[in-house]
Amino acid sequence: MLMPEPVLGLRERKRLETHRALATTAVRLVAERGLDQVTVEDISAAAGVSPRTFFNYFPSKEDAVVIAHADNAERSQRIIEKFLATPKEVSTPRAFVDALKEDFAQVDENREEWLGRMKAIHENPTLHSRAVAMNHDTVAPTIEAIARRTGLDPKADLYPTLLLSTLGGAINAVLRLWYQHDGEVSAIELLDEAVELLLAGLPEPGGRAR
Which residue numbers delimit the HTH tetR-type domain (predicted)? Predict the structure, then answer.
């Protein structure tokens, strides 16, 4: 059963808002100046908080750049719940992509922020490594969810892990192309195109034989 999104109290809303303010400020400053030219003090001052408050939200400036939302774990869980609640007649890859669309739409809705974030990650390998590590804890639960929906054993069957890896690659390809087009194409439309290509067996353009 899909659980409704929780109603947030004032304190929790304030926490999420402060996190967002710090994250967007960090992205903007790093995109403008470069990672090495930005300090925690710079980010804190620009966001109107103290460095002590900054460290209540992030352990480092790198984390402030790559972690867009304080409730990242809760968002991942809601995606899994939406995925599992999708009717069985919908293909598993399509069900997964549809479940994450609401969160993924924020790439289009917050274009400048995500262009800045991707520019920073592209220019700094340490940020790329941090972004990958950030998603580590979501891998096992997502594989378990795919296995549950398909009735497979995640430890014995290849499909759940392969599907997650394939869809993760598709998402990375979509974001890369979106960034190369300076965000002037729809990330959601690119994501739909990517999953349709995968469902079709990734045919070569022009119908060339393999």
Answer: 16-76
